[in-house]
Automatic annotation (TrEMBL):
Residues 1-22 form the signal peptide. It comes from the Eukaryota. GO terms for biological process: defense response. This is Thaumatin family. InterPro entries: Osmotin/thaumatin-like_sf, Thaumatin, Thaumatin_CS. The gene is P21.
Length: 223
């Protein structure tokens, strides 16, 4: 093996190693109340005010999300129920949460080795959130910090949160089941208060963000 070939091999190995590192998600509860974080993959954890959960997520993971759960009560075996964001009554989630819940969604090391991430209100809203990169020279974060629960339209109100209209009405107009829908007055309620967040399923253009693969992130409840 020549020196140039060896150098190329080492460089490719280092690039491969870098691109397959797990991403670290620091999930912090800045609320004045307890929040039970849910994560798929990752499970879940109780976060008292000021506590942080550091979660490693494997490179290449897609369809992932982190969300806050409120009003939870679990027994010693990790079984119970949450008022919002419940995941089949488990402390350590194995599936997505029940609306309403504010979502931090992401897919790692995708097209051109980019991470894709967003805050989605398609499942409604329960806790204010910031979702932001904290490494790799990537600095564009997303926030949804408006008082959506307090201002929620009456038809979307529920205990502990604010439903998205799809959850309430279950029609194609709001759920985009046929893939052909647009914004509505109710989705605009969310969009005007959190312009960077998904307000309905086809709200891609202003709601999806990217960072280079290998970036680490903060998810902050009540920033």
């Amino acid at each position: 093996m020549t020196t140039n070939t060896l150098s190329t091999f080492i460089l490719l190995a280092l690039l491969l190693l870098h691109s397959t590192n797990a991403a670290v998600f620091n999930i912090r509860n800045n609320c004045r109340y307890t929040v039970w974080a849910g994560a798929v993959p990752g499970g879940g954890r109780q976060l008292n005010p000021g506590q942080t959960w550091s979660l490693n997520v494997a490179a290449g993971t897609a369809g992932a999300r982190i969300w806050p759960r409120t009003g939870c009560n679990f027994d010693g075996s990790g079984r119970g129920r949450c008022q919002t964001g419940d995941c089949n009554g488990l402390l350590r989630c194995q599936n997505y949460g029940t609306p309403p819940n504010t979502l931090a969604e992401f897919a790692l090391n995708q097209y051109q080795n980019l991470d894709f991430f967003d805050i989605s209100l398609v499942d409604g809203f329960n806790v204010p959130m910031v979702f932001r990169p904290n490494s790799n020279g990537c600095s564009r974060g997303i926030s949804c910090t408006a008082d959506i629960n307090g201002q929620c339209p009456n038809q979307l109100r529920t205990s502990g949160g604010c439903h998205n209209p799809c959850t309430v009405y279950k029609t194609d107009q709001y759920c985009c089941n046929s893939g052909n829908c647009g914004p509505t007055d109710l989705s605009r309620f969310f969009k005007t208060r959190c312009p960077d967040a998904y307000s309905y399923p086809k709200d891609d253009q202003t709601s999806t963000f990217t960072c280079p693969g290998g970036t680490n992130y903060d998810v902050i409840f009540c920033p």
